[in-house]
Design a protein that fits this description.
The complex is a heterodimer of chains A (114) and B (112).
Chain A: E1 4-7, E2 10-13, E3 19-25, E4 31-38, E5 42-51, E6 54-57, E7 64-70, E8 73-78, E9 87-94, E10 104-105, E11 109-113
Parallel strand pairs in A: 2-11
Antiparallel strand pairs in A: 1-3, 3-8, 4-5, 4-9, 5-6, 7-8, 9-10, 9-11
Chain B: E1 4-7, E2 10-14, E3 19-25, E4 30-38, E5 45-50, E6 56-59, E7 62-67, E8 72-77, E9 86-94, E10 100-102, E11 106-111
Parallel strand pairs in B: 2-11
Antiparallel strand pairs in B: 1-3, 3-8, 4-5, 4-9, 6-7, 7-8, 9-10, 9-11
Classes of the chains: A mainly beta (114), B mainly beta (112).
């Protein structure tokens, strides 16, 4: 998985609790992304980062916040988890290249909110 | 608002047959069209990609066909094998923008 780890890999939490998911990369790529994957919706971008402390919203950012204090780490926080946030969360990384473009994905975190 | 529409949602193909997955887009600023392959329990991985200056790109058994005027592109898997059983996502990207817009995915099953 291109030097990307996600933790935890599985988590069950209760409605209303805060949850933080971590993405760690060893590739020194500039861009990092958080997606959620749900049946019938494909991969939807939550937030992304284009550098340390530089982040922006994706298409489904409500209820989520992110932070990036180091190049290698990108944190996703569910401020107050809801059942609608039960999903599989993927982190991805990319770097600016002139001829090719590829996002590399981590192994995913399965989150269940009860 | 879904900018990349993918069909079918699921597909069953006999071993040795041709699998075809279609995508259509609306944003004419898209200039890069990748396909990602995802196996159960894994993250998606880039399979093949095309830019709109060519109408077809082939890598082994996998071919992307691109129709700029119709704003459509498709993935063809020739001689489909059970190991090709996976979920496939099309995607699109605007030049200078580092974000991908994904289709909703196609679950492909190859039966013996």
């Amino acid at each position: 998985d291109a030097g990307i780890t996600q933790s935890p890999r599985h988590k069950v939490t209760e409605t209303g609790t805060p949850v933080t998911l971590r993405c760690h990369q060893t590739e020194n790529h500039r861009y990092m992304y958080w997606y959620r994957q749900d049946p019938g919706h494909g991969l939807r971008l939550i937030h992304y980062s284009y550098g340390v402390k530089d982040t922006d919203k994706g298409e489904v950012s409500d209820g989520y916040s992110v932070s990036r204090s180091k190049t290698e780490d990108f944190l996703l926080t569910l401020e107050s988890a809801t059942s609608s946030q039960t999903s599989v969360y993927f982190c991805a990384i990319s770097e600016v290249r002139t001829l090719t473009y590829e996002q590399y994905f981590g192994p995913g975190t399965r989150l269940t909110v009860t | 608002q879904q900018q990349v529409k993918q069909s079918p949602q699921s597909l069953i193909v006999q071993k040795g047959g041709i699998s075809i997955i279609n995508c259509a887009y609306e944003n004419t600023a898209f200039d890069y069209f990748p396909w990602y392959q995802q196996f159960p329990g894994k993250g998606p991985a880039l399979l093949i990609a095309i830019r709109p200056d060519v109408s077809e790109k082939k890598e082994g058994r996998f071919t992307i066909s691109f129709n700029k005027s119709a704003k459509q592109f498709s993935l063809h898997i020739m001689d489909s094998q059970p190991g090709d059983s996976a979920t496939y996502f099309c995607a699109a990207k605007v030049g200078g923008n580092e974000k991908l817009t994904f289709g909703t995915g196609t679950r492909l099953t190859i039966i013996p």
